[in-house]
Amino acid sequence: MATASGSADGTWDDLLQQGTGPVQESFLDLVRTTRHYLGYSPNVVWGNLQTPQYAEAMLHLVVDFHGIPDDIEAGVAARTARAQFIGQEGRTYHVLLGEQALLTNIGGPEVMHGQLRRLTDALSLPGLTLGIVPARARLLVYPGDGFSIFDDRRVEVEGFRGGETITAPERLAVFRKAFDRLQPSAVYGAAARDLIETALGGT
Question: What is the pTM of this model?
Answer without folding.
Answer: 0.91
